[in-house]
Amino acid sequence: MPPLFKKDERFTQGIFRPKNPDKFIGKDLIVEKKNLGKAAIFRSSYERKFFMWADNHPSVLEWGSENIVIKYLSPIDNRYHRYYVDNYVVWKEGTVIKKYLIEIKPFAQTQPPKPSNRKKKATMLYENTQWSINKAKWEAAKKVASHINAEFLILTEKELF
Question: Is residue 141 part of a domain?
Fold first, then answer.
């Protein structure tokens, strides 16, 4: 059986078990034939921080991780791909209920890459490719969010910490 996810040692990654599983939108997580119950995989310390906030905040009615899939057209190969939005949150603000599709990224990845003589050409190509793909994903997410009366947000370390 292949691993649940490929762990990258450069990042904080793991399994998050909600203290309030009734708020979590997701299925039981099964790892190596062991049922962990409702759980989510975090792929960075930013995602873990967000999971803890969503799980514990009294205004969060429901939340999920990578449970919204959006089809987007890649500007790189001009083909459709699937984008798993990092999080979905239902939030109660007074008497108003709001829905959000949330992407979590380092701030630097939310800005166009800056050219530099210090960067290798391969690095600049990679950064520009990722930027183009992310823009296409985020435009598709905004359209889907508007169709389901939700808002698409990108959260960075500036909002999370």
Answer: yes
For 52-117, the DSSP string reads HHHHH-TTEEEEEEEEEEEEEE-TTTS-EEEEEEEEEEEEEETTEEEEEEEEE--GGGGSPPPP-T
pTM for the whole thing? 0.88
At position 130, the amino acid (one-letter code) is Q
Residue 151 CB burial class (10 angstroms; 0-12, 13-18, ≥19): middle
Q: Which amino acid is at 75?
A: P
Q: Residue-wise pLDDT tens for the chain (161 aa)?
A: 344 555 566 678 999 999 999 999 998 888 888 888 999 999 999 999 999 999 999 999 999 999 999 999 999 999 999 999 999 999 999 999 999 999 999 999 999 999 889 999 999 999 999 999 999 999 999 999 999 999 999 999 999 98
Q: Which two tokens stand for residue 141?
A: 């997410």
Residue bearing tokens 């899939």: 69
Burial (0-12, 13-18, 19+ Cβ within 10 Å), 155: buried
How many domains is the chain partitioned into structurally? Answer: 1
Range of the domain at 90: 45-50+57-160
